[in-house]
Structure formats: structure tokens, C-alpha cells
Amino acid sequence: MADASENRHQRQVVALAAGGTGGHLFPAQALAEELVRRGHACVLFSDERAAKYVKDMPGVELVITPAATITPRQPWRVPGQVWRIWRGMAMARREMRARGVKAAVGFGGYPSLPPLLAAWREKLPIMTHDAGVAIGKANRLLARLAARMFVSFPKVTGLAAQYLGKTVHTGNPVRAAVLAVAGAPYEPPERADAPFRLLITGGSQGAHFFAEALPAALAELPGALRRRLEVVFQCREEDMAVVREKLAGLELAKLELASFFDDLPSRMADAHLVICRAGASTIAELMVIGRPAILIPYPHLADDEQGQNAKAFAHGGAGWVLRQHEATPERLGGLITELAHKPEMLMAAHEAALAQARADAARRMADEVERVLAATQVVDEAGKSVRKTGETE
Question: Which CATH homologous superfamily contains domain 179-356?
């Protein structure tokens, strides 16, 4: 059987299917970067939200595909939702045929379902990836059809036992911008007057809470610590004026406030401590870069997805978890103060984060994709040979 190394020299077109948020698209981007580097081509199927990400994916074509979430509790909406999924599947089949797609990899989110069903209907091998501990709904639905199920953590939840044999622990692929600062040197401040660099980012899930809670927590810090604090704060545009006003009187050593930092990985590498949600991509970046974090999981997701991610990260010693209802100004401020004065705790967390990292996740996944492509090619060639023999006879 042809192996992956042989297949690398043959250009193949791979479809990627993902929801339109960074948590789904960043791993897709990382795999695309690796596959394109190996000479393959990638087509991304997603919704309109993906357009702003594609500019950072050279060599990847975006196909915006109709999709919908099925809402059983609102049965009057279901017929329209099924119609959108069917339309998305029909469209994806046409686009895959036109481009000669040979396999499809889905990264979760409801927009991934129509393209992966389309690939299955085209008799193409499909694979899935879950960034978090909990297997997502779309990927659970596709488990029976998948040739491989890539997972980011060694133990996952929500997957029926008969499908566990399909899982491959690759880790969560991170973008080239993250790999560029992987394992960046880390030196927690030893002197009581040394700058203490803090990165705060609420992500797309519940960032308004951060705009309220973090300024109040920083106000709880001792004045001497606030005067050493260099803060990078990413918050929503609509919260920015209020956050700036709240922080203005705290005498911080430095404040950078923006709704989006396009160099967030390098800012993470510069930080002594990160305060953030517990999305799977954020966790993967913390591991690969090796940064201690206080995690405040978003509390309103099904299956407590971020809570499970945070628990796995902190269980290895890489960070500290505060549930949103626990993250009072007093408690959060007290934890920041403690960590700022205990560099040994920060260094131990840095080392624990790196110990959990899989910086080669994109390579591992691309190797598996190529193995599936190679096996599919062998089957196709065998089928052609049988048909040709039959025609000769």
C-alpha cells in the first residue's frame, strides 16, 4: 500500500469544513498551512463569518455554504433549517466535483455538517477534529461515517464507546503565528519592583463579563503592584470607552486597549500571566507558547465545554480555574496579587503548560490525512483495474 511519504508528492485537493468562529477556523487554518506547504490545495467550506479569516490563509479558497442548526424545541423552524442544510449539501457536492476534492476534514460547528454530508454522498473519506475535551454535536452526528476522528486531548467525553477506536490523539493544531513563538523564553519577575505583564482577553464568548470584572479586580490590587502592571486588554468595541475610564485612575505602568490585536500570539508570549476564557484554541496556544493562565470558563455552553477544557489544562498544573460566579473582584484580585509575588508558581505553571503541548499537531494531522488519501487512491486504482479488466473480457 502506498504510504504518506509517497502521497506527499501528488497534489490532492482537500475540503475543510468549519464553523465561522476562531475556535473552529484556527485549527482548520493550521492544517491548511501544513497541507499547502506539502503541495496540496485546500477549499474551505464555512459561513460568512469566515471571510475575515481567509485573508490569513494563503492558497485556501473559501466557499460560503448555507447551513443551519436544528432546533427541536422550536419545531416550526425545523423545515426551513432542514431545507438550508439540504441546499448547503447540494451546493457543496457541486463545488467539490468541480474542484476534484478527494477528502474532507471537518472542524465542528453547524456550518461543517452540510459539506461533510456532501463529501460522504460523493463517497469521499471524511475526517473530523475536535478542539476541546467534549466532542461537539456535529461531530457526534458524523462519528459513524468518519474514517478518522482527530482529538486534542488524550481523553474525550460525549463519544459513544464504539467510535473511540476511530480517534487519533493529534493535539489541536495552531497557526504559524503561534508556532513562531512556541516555547518562547519565560522569566517571571523576581524583583518586587520589576514590571509585571498581564494579558487579558475575553474572546468571542462573554467578553462583556471581562469588561466588568477585570477593572474591578485590578482596582483591588495593592498600589505598588498596580504601578508595576503592564496590561494588554482585548475587549469588545462597545465596552472600550467604559473599560478605559475605569482603568484610567489605577496608575497602571502601561495600558494597551483594543478590540482586536492581530499579533495576539506574540503578546501572549510577552506576558507573565494571561487571564482568559477556556476556548480550545486559546488552551492550545497557551500550551504551545507555555504561558500560565487564570481561566474563567464561559458558563453557558452545552456540556460545559470550556469548563472541561480548563479542568484538563489546570489539572496538569499549568493554570488556575475560577468559575464565573467565583471570579469576584476580591478573589480574582487576590489571586493576581499572589501570583505576582510568587515567581516560582508562575515558572512551574509555564513548565507544566509546555509539557502538555503538541506543537506538531498540524503535522500529525496532515500525516493522517495523507494516509487516508493514499489508501483511497489505492482503492480507486484497484476499482479502475477491475472495471478495465471487465471491459477487456
Answer: Glycogen Phosphorylase B; (3.40.50.2000)
